[in-house]
Amino acid sequence: MLISRDDARNSFLTWIVCLASCFCFGQSESSPPRALPHCQEPLDLDSKKLPLVLSAAQSGDADAACLVGFAYHYGFGVKQSDEESAKWLLASAAAGLPLAENELGYLYEHGSGVPQSDALAIKWYQAAANQGLATGQNNLGYMYYTGRGFENRNYAKAATLFAEAAQRGLAAAEFNLGGLYDTGRGLPQDFKLAMEWYNKSADQGFAAAKTSLGLMYLRGEGVNRDYDKAAALFQESAEQRDAPGEACLGYMYAKGYGVRRDYAAAFKWTSTAAEHGIASAEANLAYLYEHGFGTTQNPQEAVKWYLAAAAKGVSASQNTLGVYLTQGTLLPKDYTQAAQWFRRAADQGHVAAQVNLGILYAKGLGVPLDYIQAYLWFSLAAKAGSREANAAIKTISTVMTPAQLENAKQRASMLATKTQPASDPSNNQDPSTLATDGTP
Questions:
Q1: Please, which residues have CB within 8 angstroms of residue 236's CB and are 6 or more apart in sequence?
Q2: DSSP classification of residue 132
Q3: Where are the alpha helices (DSSP H) in 147-278?
């Protein structure tokens, strides 16, 4: 009676954003992946059948109750109502139907028609998973991955559940499993196995997997670098309205990788991804507006999108705002705010921001004059290979007292053993750095 269909909910795609933004004008954001197909819909239900199904449900038929629950959730032949959906799904789930258990878990996870409860979401996802329902296994894996409803994240448990669902052919789980191999979370990092699972998912038309495959071809991870294949995969996923795919395609057009450079197309796809809330695309769109690439130059729009990306943690945008605040260009000069943006970016390991923050400390601009703090930030940036930082260390060493210099060197040595700059594509020669990375 029920026809299975994956509902490709790509809210697990913030991880894809992390990858996508490695190849755009800003820097990466780091969040977990998710592709959550929460249900399988009863596609054969219409308004003519509904009275018969409803009558059967009222008589205690668990299958019919499940169908009615889906009908109310999706508005098939009835007015959409999550409350009514929850009522009928609960009756069906209580009788042990895995489809109802899984969908009820989704309602509890999101607080749709029932009070939000991670604990009850886990309970019902677990019940569905125990009966071998792939979507239940995938959804329970997501809860372990994010740590929702648990004391801590459990990547290993998530990997086990994704693998079970993937073995049953669930495209979203294949994608998620590929993501764990790609990042080395819960499993040993293995780009070839990541490619294998991404391919299985992509072969089923899963857009997020196409984006991930494109990124692997773009980066040359697990496969020889191939811009043409990457661009083709991004085109497919973007046309399926995968927002990270749109962001990646915009990047390819801006760089001319695998396609002819076309700033108008870059603007089109980047702006679409930015409107969908992709932080890296917001940073890229700001860059396009700032320089008038593919659109009319618009400083106000540039600032708007830099601020949006920076607020979401894009360190390149945070650094860029800091630069503008020190220069008084797109924003009024404000060293205090500049220092705050530099600090947020520097704490993420953004090398240019570390240098910039060190300069402010060395000059006492927006922060107290502090040669030792300046030396420490220059040291972190120098450790990441910044020539500007090495030059700054030599300069500031000439104005520090012997005691200050010895103190700074000792603290820098201790810091080096404890602190590693956060992984940030804009720290190195990643093909993503088109953003402004100037110094004050």
A1: 207, 210, 245
A2: T
A3: 155-167, 171-183, 191-203, 207-219, 227-239, 243-255, 263-275
pLDDT tens-digit readout, 110-136: 999 999 999 999 999 999 999 999 999
CB atoms within 10 A of CB 186: 23
Residue type (1 letter), 214: G
Contact 165, 200 (CB under 8 A): no
Whole-angstrom distance, CA of residue 266 vs CA of residue 285: 9
421 burial (CB, 10 Å; 0-12 / 13-18 / 19+) is middle
Counted residue by residue, the chain has a size of 440
Annotated domain spans of the chain: 329-440
Can you list the alpha helix ranges (DSSP code H) found in 276-334? Answer: 279-291, 299-311, 315-327
pLDDT tens digits, 259-279: 999 999 999 999 999 999 999
The whole-angstrom separation of Cα 129 and Cα 127 is 5
Determine if the pTM surpasses 0.85.
Answer: no
The sign of the dihedral angle between the CA atoms of 407, 413, 414, 416 is positive
Query: Within its chain, how far is the Cα of 87 from the centroid?
Result: 34
